Amino acid sequence: MNVDINPSWNAILQDEFDKPYFKKLAEFVKEEYREYQCFPPENLIFNAFKKCTLDQLKVVIIGQDPYHNYDQANGLCFSVNDGVAHPPSLVNIFKEIETDVKKTYPKSGNLERWAEQGVFLLNATLTVRAHEAGSHQKHGWETFTDAVIKTISEQKEGVVFLLWGGFAKKKVKLIDSEKHHVLTSGHPSPLSANRGYWFGNKHFSKTNAILKNNGLEEIEW
What we know:
alpha/beta; Uracil-DNA_glycosylase-like_sf; single chain; DNA damage; globular; Uracil-DNA Glycosylase, subunit E; DNA repair; two-stranded antiparallel sheet
């Protein structure tokens, strides 16, 4: 497994890469990609760490698992490649942005434009076997991504963490809420959103208000 990340992450993550669990994880992923169709493409597994440097990171959004259908996953949580139909959760994210910050619903579901502005789009598990949701969970990815969240909390200040749904909310224990801003809500998936736990959370305008207050550039959602 080729760990292709922006150099800004190297110093703080090198210790993790050297640990036995990560070496075992790398072997597992290599074998899975050799034996099965897996997503995202190998060169995009660490895309979140390429598109958003540690220096520019201002916002963290945590997802659970990559999309497991063809051409969807591009290594950023909730994001799909240009020209791909928007999955239901992403549709609801864009609908909330429409009402919250009055931005027109976009054609592309590719969230690289967010990442390049300092939004770190991290899935807890970075790979998945085609059409088998959760197939790469509990093989070491969660240990790695928990360490990443904890390290961001330790190394940075004033980051806005957006925790959507029960799974993401559990990550609050890794975050120093005295130093950072934590916003929580239901998940944007239809199951949660249609029961009133997502729409109206105004996380996008709230995030920008916090950034502005900290003298940082707002996100162009």
